[in-house]
Structure formats: structure tokens, C-alpha cells
Amino acid sequence: MKIGETGLAYFKVTNNAKTPVTGHAVYNVVPEQAGGYFRKLECFCFSDQTIGPGQTIEFPVVYFVDPKYATDENTRNKRDVTLSYTFYPAVSAKQASTAGEKSPSALGGTPKAGL
Fold first, then answer.
1. CA dist 115 to 16, 17, 39, Å?
2. Which domains are delineated in the chain?
3. Are 57 and 87 in contact (CB under 8 A)?
4. What is the pLDDT of residues 72-102, one digit of tens each?
């Protein structure tokens, strides 16, 4: 796709656990300098997601990369932007106040969106 155009990517996520899992997706953009230019318009990461045992779901993300990305001296020669997600178990406010650092959940994903 061309920079500045709205894109649509799907992320396939599978719950490998034997029980339902409710998680929250956290995104990452590479190269790091692209983060300031990457805009998610609609994303499954805006809210918690519950996935049944053994279930696979494709989640859509609507996004665009600001055209200024192409003129920034730190990014103008970087043609590819990769968007990835990690799912973490969702925690209630009560759990969050008593919980330490959590490891990623049993959810596995297939993330990649390129320009």
C-alpha cells in the first residue's frame, strides 16, 4: 500500500489453552522511529478480547502511516513497517493493584503488516 492510505490488516490469534482466555493486546511497531507516524483507527487492542479454548479468531486493524514518515530523515529510507501484538492476560482493577509483572498468555498470534 502507499504511505498515507488507510490500510486493513488481520491478525490471526489462537487460544492454545483448554479454557477461555481474556486478554489485552499490546502493539509494537518496527522500526521504532515509525511509532510516531503510525495511527490505528480501529483496533481489537482498544479493549479486552475473550477467546474460547482452541478457538482461532482473525482480528482486523484499520490504520495508516502519516505521509511525513517519507520525508523524515530518520525514516525516509525505511520502506517496511511491521506491526506486531503480544497478548497479556486481562486483569481487573483489584488484581492489577496486587499483581506483579505478568507473562504473555497462552494466545499465539501471526502479526505482520507491511507498506
1. 30, 33, 13
2. 7-110 (2.60.370.10)
3. no
4. 999 988 888 899 999 899 875 445 445 555 4
